[in-house]
Automatic annotation (TrEMBL):
It catalyses: ATP + H2O = ADP + phosphate + H(+). It comes from Ensete ventricosum. This is RNA helicase. Residues 30-41 have a biased composition (Low complexity). Residues 102-118, 597-606 have a biased composition (Gly residues). Gene3D superfamilies: P-loop containing nucleotide triphosphate hydrolases. One of its GO terms (molecular function) is RNA binding.
Length: 632
């Protein structure tokens, strides 16, 4: 495999520049008043992994921890999945939570006292601190720019729509939610001051044990929205049945994501959120040696973060069983259910040993949710709530979008002009990161080479690179050692890279949702960002949806683009977004027309109808063909 020149440079540099996974210094001063440090207790001498719900177990005669007088903690807790079904749905066997610290009399089997898990943390003292060093190093490289341009209040006025039966009310603060002391402490460590809108709505819904399909803008904190409830539930939940078949791991929660890098990132985030809770998180993804992942699994796992391909491998080897799964989260759920992935997901969810819908809690999250995919997704959900924060599939107003008409033959020189201008005016700080999206893996290699030859430090990430190369490239980019990353869609979704100032769509995607995810790599967590797209005749099928999207996001639409959009419409161009300014927080269940098979979708177009999704969208190549795909 080729090793990129830039990577070698970056590799050398990165020994001097440690990479911070996620910096949020803007949220300094965060201190949830109710947060209190979890107290580590002496470690009992146990050799094998013990799941969190059993770790505090002492003598069965231990008195229950009394409920707080003010009724906080347990009193505030809504009934969870177990309570909803009248007890332990998963365990069938004898109750194993007797004497567990935090087990409160009168609870519904779930107990309370989330913050009182005060003993028996056999692993906590050895746990590597996932917060170590991240702020100082990254901020040193980025010149403290994280403190500028923050506008988290930008999300305040965002329209929110929920549908479904008995939707639990939203909360305004983390302390209202009472996720437990240890999680609260981690929220403080993450410097999250208050929940984002999707968190305000989704967390209470999930804590109430409800299934959820949630759609919220890129960079708006969806990861924490599903991680916090999962961690809290596992900390306090009823014991899942664990048949100790040798070497088979029985996770309680499964988080699936479409790319290796995203799974790695979710794992890192989840480790932070669950630090010192005793909840053990393991990641499994393709392209990396399986033996190490097997060893990690053998040590025990509560939350398994995985890509579908590697998970199927582990299931086939009987090294993982899904029979104890109580929480299933699909991140980038619309991608997980598109043509490339759906069969694999169905196999994992419906044909292995995972409890059926209604027997587990299922949560689907994405920034885009085409109605056709919603329809498919409903197979996995039970009496679910649909939550839309912002316009479904819209970009945030925080991202300034520009579209320029550039012929293919002029793209490179135009790119160079942009990069030079960026360098000269320093508009985005001294270490602004630029992410350049191209359509093909070959195109990515060739552009990276050309940039490097012209003195621009670039690296690349795509499906033909080894996993090691991919991770090295991403590290070099994140750290600023190689501030230009040329990428295919493998980097389009979910990646949270704090200092991306500019996303350039060198080649526009065929599908507007891909555009939404790509530009969403900038303008995250309330920060502003810039997205530039090179448009020409070859992209005319995207003109209408692009113009509408820009309009919705209060961006100036060039007249020439409007003309393309109109021309496209009059030729009956397919467009999923002809709903225009209509609020996209729409549950497909409420749109009777969307029920007809092959009919128009919510957006008024027919792009998704009759299976057009995927086939017409460029997914058919890279994503649709698992053999060629990096999506494993
Ligand atoms: N309550 C909060 N306060 C401050 N920052 C937050 C909060 N919640 C999340 N963040 C930060 O916001 C950033 C974006 O979060 P996240 O990656 O979960 O977004 P997302 O909605 O999943 O985006 P995408 O759709 O691109 O996957 C992260 O850096 C995260 O640490």
């Amino acid at each position: 495999m080729r090793t990129s020149w830039a990577d070698s440079v970056a590799n050398a540099d990165s020994s001097a520049v440690a990479v911070g996974a996620s910096t949020s210094t803007t949220y300094a001063n965060a201190a949830d008043a109710s947060a209190a440090s979890a107290v580590a207790a002496p470690r009992p001498g146990r050799a094998s992994y013990v799941p969190p719900h059993l770790r505090n177990r002492t003598a069965s005669s231990e008195p229950p921890v009394p409920s707080p007088a003010d009724g906080s903690s347990a009193a505030k807790l809504p009934p969870g999945p177990a309570a909803l079904s009248g007890g332990n749905r998963w365990g069938g066997g004898p109750s194993r939570d007797m004497g567990r610290a935090g087990s409160v009399g009168g609870g519904q089997g779930t107990g309370g006292g989330w913050g009182s898990r005060s003993g028996g943390w056999d692993r906590r003292e050895r746990e590597v601190n996932p917060f170590a060093n991240e702020d100082e190093t990254t901020e040193a490289v980025f010149d403290g720019r994280d403190t500028t341009g923050i506008n988290f209040d930008a999300y305040e006025d965002i329209p929110v729509e929920t549908s479904g039966e008995n939707v639990p009310p939203p909360v305004s603060t983390f302390s209202e939610i009472d996720l437990g002391d240890a999680v609260n402490e981690n929220i403080r460590r993450c410097k999250y001051v208050k929940p984002t809108p999707v968190q305000r709505h989704a967390i209470p819904i999930l804590l109430a044990g409800r299934d959820l399909m949630a759609c919220a803008q890129t960079g708006s904190g969806k990861t924490a929205a599903f991680c916090f409830p999962i961690i809290s539930w596992i900390m306090r939940g009823p014991p899942a049945e664990r048949q100790r078949v040798s070497r088979t791991a029985y996770p309680s929660a499964l988080i699936l994501s479409p790319t290796r890098e995203l799974s790695i990132q979710i794992h890192e985030e989840t480790r932070k959120f669950s630090y010192q809770t005793g909840v053990r998180v393991v990641v499994a993804y393709g392209g990396a040696p399986i033996n190490q992942q097997l060893r990690e699994l053998e040590r025990g796992v509560d939350i398994l973060v995985a890509t579908p391909g590697r998970l199927v491998d582990l299931l086939e080897r009987a090294r993982v069983s899904l029979q104890s799964i109580r929480y299933l989260a699909l991140d980038e759920a619309d991608r997980m259910l598109d043509m490339g992935f759906e069969p694999q997901i169905r196999r994992i969810v419906e044909q292995m040993d995972m409890p059926g819908r209604g027997q587990r809690q299922t949560m689907l999250f994405s920034a885009t949710f085409p109605s056709e995919i919603q329809r498919l997704a409903s197979d996995f959900l039970s009496n679910y709530i649909f939550l839309a924060v912002g316009r479904v599939g819209s970009s945030t107003d925080l991202i300034a979008q520009r579209v320029e008409f550039v012929l293919d033959s002029d793209k490179r020189s135009h790119l160079m002009d942009l990069l030079h201008a960026q360098e000269v005016n320093g508009a985005h700080g001294k270490q602004a990161l630029t992410l350049v999206f191209v359509e093909t893996k070959k195109g990515a290699d060739s552009l990276e080479h050309w940039l490097c030859m012209n003195g621009f430090p670039a690296t690349t990430i795509h499906g033909d690179r080894t996993q090691q190369e991919r991770e090295r490239a991403l590290r070099a980019f994140k750290s600023g050692a190689t501030p230009i990353l040329v990428a295919t869609d493998v980097a389009a979704r979910g990646l949270d890279i704090p200092h991306v100032a500019h996303v350039i769509n060198f080649d526009l995607p065929n599908d507007i949702d891909d555009y939404v995810h790509r530009i969403g790599r900038t303008g995250r967590a309330g920060k502003s960002g810039l997205a530039t797209a090179f448009f020409n005749e070859n992209n005319s099928s995207l003109a209408r949806s692009l113009a509408e999207l820009m309009q919705e996001a209060n961006q100036e639409v060039p007249q020439w683009l409007s003309r393309y959009a109109v021309a496209r419409s009059s030729y009956g161009g397919r467009n999923r977004r002809t709903g225009g300014a209509r609020f996209g927080g729409r549950d497909f269940r409420r749109d009777s027309s969307s029920r007809s098979v092959g009919g128009g979708d919510y957006y008024g177009g027919s792009g998704y109808g009759g299976g057009a999704y995927g086939a017409s969208s460029g997914y058919s190549g890279g994503y649709g063909n698992p053999g060629l795909s990096a999506w494993d």
